[in-house]
Design a protein that fits this description.
6 strands; 269 residues; alpha+beta; six-stranded antiparallel β-sheet; binds adenosine-5'-triphosphate; globular; binds magnesium ion
């Protein structure tokens, strides 16, 4: 009988590049919304932080974690989310393009699929896109530093944006004037402007805005009502059933210090 049919065209497969991620390393996929400066304006995002958009981003990230394999932690802020695959993952033989494209397409389709649940009366005007990149980190320290970098970025941007939009929305400065006012200012100066001109204590701003969102797997008690099958006299009766599920749970905590990693040693195993 014939062996596996192979056409004479099969050789073109050899043109595919090997993009295997180095064994035993942390694989990080980071997505970022394409031209969300425009997207956020067209869809009337509240500035500087539209919580609907942040919750939608997190819903998409939870969907990615539930649908794909081996993601141990995710971190998101603004229009970006990072996903960390466990060191020993062998999903798709560790091919970078598979990790990246599955994350990006699952996330983007979820963004459209769940849009209405968060934006209700704001129609989605055009299909959003996300870019993706893969970075491989060789040890726990570089992975922790990667996540610290993203959270520090969240802090720096959010402090800037909070003052910027206060100057525009409350003091009536033009964007160009607000930018000029903030040119060369340090974090302490920005905190001072917020406090003295707007009576805002930056430390009291919502944690989700200041820290971003961390998703980790945690056991959650789920109460569902179940139809009782037996015994016969209870047929058709409903009963509350509690079962424990492991779900990606959002936290808005510091991940730069050691405390988070001490509290959750299982993430780095
Ligand atoms: P690129 O395609 O290069 O990523 P971009 O316009 O998406 O371009 P970013 O640096 O990714 O640029 O910035 C994201 C933009 O989206 C910022 O302008 C930010 O204000 C806006 N944005 C993202 N999320 C929110 C949100 N939840 N609320 C308000 N604005 C947001
Ligand atoms: P993988 O995730 O590995 O790609 P897969 O199930 O998508 O798994 P493919 O080799 O990509 O496997 O095959 C695509 C499958 O989808 C086939 O089983 C094919 O029958 C089905 N399919 C795709 N397009 C159509 C279509 N237009 N009509 C009917 N079936 C389709
Ligand atoms: Mg960018
Ligand atoms: Mg972007
Ligand atoms: Mg961005
Ligand atoms: Mg397929």
């Amino acid at each position: 009988g014939a062996t596996m049919a192979k056409s004479k065209f099969e050789y073109v497969r050899d043109f595919e590049a090997d993009d295997t991620c180095l064994a035993h390393c942390w694989v990080v996929v980071r997505l970022d919304g394409r031209n969300f400066h425009r997207f956020s304006e067209k869809h009337n995002f509240a500035k500087p932080n539209d919580s609907r958009a942040l919750y939608l981003m997190t819903k998409c990230a939870q969907t990615v974690m539930e649908e794909l394999e081996d993601i141990v932690i995710a971190y998101g802020q603004s229009d970006e989310y990072s996903f960390v695959f466990k060191r020993k993952s062998n999903w798709f033989k560790r091919r970078a393009s598979k990790f990246m494209t599955h994350v990006a397409s699952q996330f983007a389709s979820s963004y459209v699929f769940y849009w209405r649940d968060f934006f209700e009366d704001q129609p989605l005007l055009y299909p959003p896109g996300f870019d993706g990149r893969v970075v491989v980190y060789p040890n726990n320290q570089t992975l922790k530093d990667y996540l610290s970098w993203r959270q520090a970025d969240c802090h720096i941007n959010n402090l800037y944006n909070t003052v910027f939009w206060a100057l525009v929305q409350q003091s009536g400065l033009t964007p160009v004037q607000a930018q000029g006012r903030l040119q060369g200012t340090l974090a302490a100066d920005k905190n001072e402007i917020l406090f003295s001109e707007f009576n805002i204590n930056y430390n009291n701003e919502p944690l989700m805005y200041r820290k971003g969102t961390v998703l980790i797997w945690q056991k959650v008690d789920e109460v569902t009502t179940k139809e009782v099958k037996l015994p016969a006299e209870m047929e058709g009766k409903k009963m509350a059933v509690t079962r424990t599920r492991t779900k990606p749970v959002p936290l808005h905590c510091d991940i730069i210090g050691d405390a988070f990693w001490k509290d959750h040693p299982e993430i780095l195993d």
